[in-house]
């Protein structure tokens, strides 16, 4: 019995560590250093005609860029911006549905109150397609997600 329990714990730990390696901050990059910022991008959060949007809805940058995202919430509601892989944001969205008041202390995310600004400094270390999204329940479904093309 104890041997079976130990094997189950080892298997669970292995699965969790694999998921962590496939996800997490280094899947889309890593926290950036302000002294190394070589690009600044303003992202606006807006609510229009029943939709919630990021402006611009798509950005293209180069692998290796360290980007200062200035995140301006022009809307009436609180929003957040989370940078991750498409799959990572989908997993995080499910967590947010279960715990909508979840606090973020991750370098790839910022929560911004109405009419306030926030920022993220992020270094894109991998090429590919990534996403920025508001994962507060209902916001993603209302259109609040954008695409990051890293070449």
From TrEMBL:
Signal peptide span: 1-22
SUPFAM superfamilies linked to this entry: Cupredoxins
Top-level taxon in the UniProt lineage: Bacteria
Residue ranges annotated for the Blue (type 1) copper domain, each copy included: 44-150
Residue ranges of coiled coil: none
GO molecular function: copper ion binding; electron transfer activity
Keywords of this entry: Copper, Metal-binding, Signal
Pfam families: Copper-bind
Protein name per UniProt: Putative cupredoxin-like copper-binding protein
Organism name: Phreatobacter oligotrophus
């Amino acid at each position: 019995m104890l041997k079976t329990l130990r094997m189950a714990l080892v298997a669970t730990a292995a699965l969790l560590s694999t998921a962590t390696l496939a996800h997490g901050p280094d899947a889309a990059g890593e926290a950036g250093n302000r002294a190394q910022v070589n690009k600044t991008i303003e992202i606006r959060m807006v609510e229009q005609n029943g939709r919630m949007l990021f402006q611009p809805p798509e950005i293209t940058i180069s692998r290796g860029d360290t980007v200062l995202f200035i995140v301006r919430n022009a809307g009436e509601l609180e929003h957040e911006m989370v940078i991750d892989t498409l799959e990572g944001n989908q997993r995080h969205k499910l967590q947010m549905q279960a715990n909508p008041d979840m606090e973020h202390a991750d370098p790839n995310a910022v929560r911004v109150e109405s009419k306030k600004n926030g920022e993220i400094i992020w270094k894109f270390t991998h090429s590919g397609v990534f996403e920025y999204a508001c994962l507060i329940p209902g916001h993603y479904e209302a259109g609040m997600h954008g695409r990051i093309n890293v070449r």
